[in-house]
Amino acid sequence: MTSGAILDIARDGIVVFLKVGGPLMLIALAVGLIVSLVQALTQIQEQTLVFVPKIIAVFAGLLLFLPFMGSALAGYMGRVAARIATGG
């Protein structure tokens, strides 16, 4: 296996990682920002208030994006397995 092939697999893995983790991270970021804005507007300074809405939103996003995530990971594994089967 050449260094170019290894770099292609690594680059593809990073892209798949961003596709899989990106939507959930953006959901967590948006919910955290909204809750922080509500806390600032209402002057509620409870530090643990942000965790429950964020966990619920990330779980809902996980249920929503799970088919996309599964197909992205399965496609990546298929490409890696095909490279292993062909010898490079």
From TrEMBL:
The keyword Membrane applies. InterPro entries: Bac_export_3, FliQ. It holds the Pfam family Bac_export_3. It is found in: Cell membrane; Bacterial flagellum basal body. Keywords: Bacterial flagellum, Cell membrane, Cell projection, Cilium, Flagellum, Membrane, Transmembrane, Transmembrane helix. It is a multi-pass membrane protein. The chain crosses the membrane at residues 12-35, 55-76. It comes from the Bacteria. The keyword Membrane applies. NCBIfam families: fliQ (TIGR01402), PRK06010.1 (NF004671). Belongs to the FliQ/MopD/SpaQ family. PANTHER family: FLAGELLAR BIOSYNTHETIC PROTEIN FLIQ. Role in flagellar biosynthesis. This is Flagellar biosynthetic protein FliQ.
